[in-house]
């Protein structure tokens, strides 16, 4: 079996609100899959259905070959799945080691406790009580509890909330290490850089529907979208004096978009060199994953599978 998670036509309604409206996606074994969406888009409900915390109204949900909504398989599934939720209730007066050791006792073949403490960068904090840990340390403890059972599939819900940049990158390294060791990971995050760095596949949910899916580099047509050339116009140069159409921004830069960036750059640099002026703060890039995400979720009524607009230069 190569598919770890199967979601087909998933539905969940609360009164008159369709929180999840026909969601479908698959997660392959050994990959990191990121489900992205604004608060209220249906992301949390979808994850809770897959985690077995919420019953679905319709459609198919399968996790490691089992139905997460079937009470008969709940025990078997819990032994193979790890959870790192946004809020995990732990005893504040237990130490870090005691907390991890207690959870290790729930599994037949848990990971080594010292190994896990090292993996989540809590070495030296083993004897600290949970109540005195910082927010980032508590989040690393949450991650330790999620992996102590050596799961086949790990759900990560906003895993690096409260982390400073260094700690966040350390967590990313750990997640990639777990994936490289064969673990399947399904995560949610509001950090687009995190999704870009970690995810093999991404799906964006809006108004209860998947509006785009693909790799971080191709999501929403990002790989073939128009290139953006941005620079600071030379002093006393109006936007209309430039040899190409440009749009001024509030940051003092102008933006030129083109499907043929090489030709456009040639025209701009030739113009600048001919006048002996510089194109200060010059950058050339395609829309970032965050740009695409904001575009896809800016209006929750957008049609599914929307892509970035493209046109000739």
From TrEMBL:
Residue ranges of the ABC transporter domain? Answer: 5-232
Membrane topology, from the record: Peripheral membrane protein
Question: Entry's InterPro entries?
Answer: AAA+_ATPase, ABC_transporter-like_ATP-bd, ABC_transporter-like_CS, ABC_transporter_ATP-binding, P-loop_NTPase
Domain of life where this protein originates = Bacteria
Location relative to the cell = Cell membrane
In which broad location class does this protein mainly occur, judging by the first location in its UniProt entry?
membrane
**Pfam families in alphabetical order:** ABC_tran
UniProt entry keywords in alphabetical sequence: Antibiotic resistance, ATP-binding, Nucleotide-binding, Transport
Q: Which GO terms describe its molecular function?
A: ATP binding
Q: What is this protein called?
A: ABC transporter ATP-binding protein
- Native organism: Actinoallomurus liliacearum
């Amino acid at each position: 079996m190569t598919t770890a998670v199967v979601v087909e036509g998933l539905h969940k309604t609360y009164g008159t609100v369709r929180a999840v409206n026909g969601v479908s996606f698959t997660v392959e074994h050994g990959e990191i899959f990121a489900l992205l969406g604004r608060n209220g888009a249906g992301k949390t409900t979808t994850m809770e259905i897959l985690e077995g915390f919420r019953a679905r109204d319709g459609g198919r949900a399968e996790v490691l070959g089992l139905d997460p909504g079937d009470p008969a398989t709940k025990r078997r599934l819990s032994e193979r799945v790890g959870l790192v939720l946004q809020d995990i209730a732990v005893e504040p007066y237990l130490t870090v080691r005691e907390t991890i050791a207690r959870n290790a006792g729930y599994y037949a073949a848990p990971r080594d406790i010292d190994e896990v403490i090292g993996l989540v960068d809590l070495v030296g904090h083993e004897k600290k009580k949970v109540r005195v840990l910082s927010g980032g340390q508590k989040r690393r403890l949450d991650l330790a509890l999620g992996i102590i059972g050596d799961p086949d599939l790990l759900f990560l819900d906003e895993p690096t909330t409260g982390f400073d940049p260094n700690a966040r990158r350390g967590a990313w390294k750990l997640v990639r290490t777990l994936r490289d060791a064969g673990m399947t990971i399904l995560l949610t995050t509001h950090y687009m850089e995190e999704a870009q760095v970690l995810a093999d596949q991404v799906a964006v949910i809006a108004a209860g529907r998947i509006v785009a899916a693909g790799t971080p580099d191709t999501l929403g047509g990002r790989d073939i979208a128009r290139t953006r050339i941005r620079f600071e116009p030379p002093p006393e140069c109006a936007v209309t004096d430039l040899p190409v159409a440009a749009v001024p921004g509030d940051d003092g830069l102008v933006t030129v978009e083109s499907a043929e960036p090489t030709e456009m750059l040639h025209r701009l640099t030739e113009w600048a060199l001919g006048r002996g002026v510089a194109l200060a703060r010059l950058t050339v890039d395609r829309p970032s994953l965050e740009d695409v995400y904001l575009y896809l979720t800016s209006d929750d009524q957008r049609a599914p599978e929307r892509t970035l607009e493209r046109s000739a230069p």
